[in-house]
TonB-dependent receptor (Mesonia ostreae), 801 residues
Amino acid sequence: MKTIWTCAAFLLLSFSFYAQNCSHTLTGKVIDFHTGDPLIYAIIKIANKDIQVYSDFEGNFSIENLCEEKIELKITHPSCQDLIYPVLIEGDTYKKIKLEHHLEQLGEVSITGQAVLEKVKTGQEQKIDIETLERYSSASLGDALKEVSGVSTLSTGNNVVKPMIQGLHSSRVLIMNQGVRMADQEWGAEHAPNIDLNSAGNITVVKGASALQYGGDAIGGAVIVEPERIPVKDTLYGKTILSGATNGRGGAVTTSLTKSFENAFYGKIQGTFKKFGDYKAPDYVLSNTGNEEKDFSIGFGRNTFSSGFDVFYSYYNTEIGILRSSHIGNVNDLIRAINSREPSEVNDFTYQINPPKQEVEHHLARLKYYKRLEGLGKWNIQYDYQLNNRLEYDLRTGEDKGKPSVDLELQTHTLSTNFKFDAQNEYSWNVGLNGSYQMNYPNPLTGVRRLIPDYEQFSAGAFALGEYKLSSDWLVEAGLRYDYTHLDAQKYYLKSRWNERNYNTDFSNIITAEVGNQYLANPVFDFHNLSATVGVRHSFDSFQLSANYALANRAPNPSELFADGLHHSAAVIELGNLRFKAETSQKIGLDFRKDLGDFRFGIAPFCNRIGNFLLIKPTGVETTIRGAFPVWEYEQVDARMFGVDIDWKYQISKQFAYRGSFAYVNGRDIKNEEDLIQMPPVNFSNTIRFQHEKWHQLQLNLTGDYVARQHQYPDHNFKYDVLENGSYVSTLVDVSTPPKDYFLLGFEASATFNPFEKGSMQVGLHFNNLLNTSYRDYLNRLRYYADNLGRNAMLQVKLEY
């Protein structure tokens, strides 16, 4: 009986195989999603089967002898995103398959071998790749940006570092992080960007206001931090970077893990921890300069060529010690600090961070969706939320000991959308809208007069950008943007200050209450700003010439309008002015490049005329209950700036290469006929590289950086009566004279090994200030009190898996 049933089953199975029809044919056509043009030599492969065909000159393909079943096709084509396409075979079947063939949609415009997307076509733009960013894993965003010519740093010690683009910084430099415009109290010169450098896949620096889609007020430029692209395939990968440094006796660890799928879903998690103690100048410890940073980010979404979404969250937390000897009690202390060759307080090394210090916490959440429409282009919509809490601690005693002197909480909601019409190869348009709501709350429980008041700010903007290819050699780019800003503040003014600035003449109607010796005022401002850009690019042989004009307007920030009191972390009194108008910048920039061959170079001159330019400068001394302090007052002038950035590379041989850069900026207050304050000095950088791929990808770099003395500066020195031996002596307080020039030597070595079955290990050794040179930087706000960092040796191990 058993044998009968076995034979019956065998016969039934044989019959089913025989009955299955495997004579069907799948035909189709592969075309461009936007234009409908056929795509030649696309590879069409059936998943899990050894069947593969190619599309012909008309985009057509054919696969024969298919059974009635559901199959998955994998279609690939150069410059296209791979596509997984399910097909149900029911008789002879025909399918029209559309691929995203526009390079710009995928961010894969090839520049010097890197897959990156141009943000502007005719403006001045440079990029930093992932390999360079990894070298700065334990450093800050500002430190890494110094790799770009024309980018300097305005710093407060060694941990608070802000990027300065062609002489402009803070509110004039827009920072985009993961598609979100950062709102992290950027108005402060001693407020560093709250970004974990290790979350970036690449960074683009746009010099000037030509990147209108990000904002019309970026007079200095834009820093665009983007994540690494995640492949559309089934894979799991990650990396960990461990760093240890001798200067600061600390280190950092950062790790990330990414999972992606063939159906285009993905997820990524990343985290960073940094811990350093007191840093050291060549001759002494820089007491209370340690820092600790904890960062975390997570994201997930789906990225197909037709639609997708992305959810992202990041948390940034840092505690930064401020040089103890920079905390001056009055002008007498400032004079002693300037005249002393060493800090007034030098203690033994410690990891402890005491006041004066900063503590900053920043939350960023973003939700983004996009959809591509056939024959039109791509639509994006995004909502993001940011919460920034900044604490600044002063030296306080008694009941106030351990209480912050500044406690600012800033919340920002933003909704933005844009549509890029790019179905045509000859031209494209990008139009968009955005709106944001901001609320700033300075905690009154600090017991200290609030430097920045409560305020609400609503902003709205609209832009239209277009580019047109006149021919294969000529491209024209133009754009227009309108921004509206409404600012509503609640501010207490001392009656003495109110009368001193003669506010009663223009603003008597904004006083809402009288409280003792103070007025409560409700200043409300509306700013209407128009920005525009137009440019042209011409390519010939291996050369490229671009010319761009950009008009930009920037509304005054809250500090420039409302600052009124002692800024404790800077130990100066800062004064804003309610009468300030919006800045207007008109900039012309050229960019001439050679991008092929062994020798490559770029020359980028610029000229920037800024009307109603806002600057802050020392104007005298004011006495408070805590003592006498320098007064730094905001002022509005007409400014002119011009300069040039030069880059060059020479591939000497297969193993040796040379790279250099030069930057010069000249800033002038044409209203008062004097030089602008805090302009970057001339700087010149050179690097010689040796590499040998067969020797474990060995790389050796020798770098020399020269920074000249700044000879173009305004004289804001003042005299102050100092008590000496029972009598007052008029003493010069030199807050203007720049320090001397300096030269720094650096060395890097790295090699890659494969100790594991999968993945790799790269080991690097880095030396900064190899000669242990004593120097002071003109753009370091703590240069009056101490030298910059001495020699630092850092060991870095990168594991990729």
